[in-house]
Amino acid sequence: MSETEKKPNNNRRRHRPKKKSKASGSSNKGNSQGNGPGSKASGKGPNAKKRPNSRNSNNKRRFYKKKKTGPKLTGEDYIAAKYFNLLDQHLNARKKYFENFNLVDKKTQAKLEKNFIESQKTFLAFKSRLNDKDKKLYEEKFENLKLDTTYSKNHDIAPTEHLETNVDPSDIQDPHYLVSQIESDFSDDEEESMGSLDDYKAYKGQ
Description:
Order of helices and strands: HHHHHHHHH
Structural class: mainly alpha
Distance between the termini: 139 Å
Number of helices: 9
Number of strands: 0
């Protein structure tokens, strides 16, 4: 080896960190607080984009259950299920309306009354929305009921026989007519037959 050839230096040079100036220090401080372009990378600035939480999305997929849909009802089964469903809705709306009457404010009371009336209209209009075939099934199931002939059988009366009744007006008792009124005599009382309607209004201050 000649003296002119130099030996390779395998020792790594140690680079000493340069001292940061005040200007660079302030800029780096601003970047760390989210004011510089470095804030997006750190994810701490106000403009940083939120990363989707893959863990939550996986949990949603895991616990998501598809709604089970049963067989589609048709014919008499559909009519019966729909009929009793609308009936239950109407009965619940009526119960809420009368149970909370004068117990809630006027706005809530008006809402309960509206639900009660609308549920009744929907229930009564159910038959009119059916086709001819389903309407016939509806009449056979809910309107073609047997006659109650218990009273007729006990009294030997034909169920379809029209009975004429003769009732004397004196036999009719008025439940609001007091016993003291029955025993009193008002034949000499002529107060009601005297005067005019204007006199009555003047007496009442109308």
